[in-house]
Amino acid sequence: MDTYQLLIDDAACWGCQACEVACKQENNVPVGVKIIRLVEIGPRYIAGKPDFSFSVVFCRQCEAAPCIDACPETAIQRLENGIVFLDSEKCSGCRACMETCPHDAIAFDEKQDVALKCNLCHHRVGKGLVPACADNICPAHCITFISGENSG
């Protein structure tokens, strides 16, 4: 089975939010919902000047994904290619997956009453492309897509 993941260099992140925008556009994510998001850390002060850093929060495609077992509707499954996929059409809105996610990476769409998460742009990956957030969209080049072919 192929393994896919996004590697993030948080130290290189400028906080521009290009990854968030690319994700929203590619996946038609509703306004107010983010399935990849930046968390601002700081400011801390270095030589009297504020210094900000950022952390990118997204589904880490856990090997033993607790969200899969937590979902009573089996809306979250591991695809044949290894991607942890949430089918929002099967989601009952119970939020059990959100409670078990160790990375706080599952969002909730209040209007549709469903959970949403990064599906690693499976529709792009299946065509040999990289996820939208890693498609040279990041000006700091801090997001790298790793596939089974180039991870080892």
Question: Would you give an account of this structure?
Answer:
The chain is an alpha+beta fold. It has a single domain (about 5-145), classed as Alpha-Beta Plaits, CATH 3.30.70. It is about 15% helix and about 25% strand. The chain contains 4 helices and 8 strands. It has a two-stranded antiparallel ribbon. The longest helix has 10 residues, at about 20-25.
Strand composition percent: 25-35%
Mean pLDDT: 92
Strand order of the largest sheet: 1-8
The computed structural class is alpha+beta
Intertermini distance = 13 Å
Q: What is the CATH third-level topology name?
A: Alpha-Beta Plaits
Instruction: List the secondary-structure elements in sequence, H or E.
Output: EHEEHEEHEEHE
Helix content: 10-25%
Q: Tell how many strands the DSSP assignment holds.
A: 8
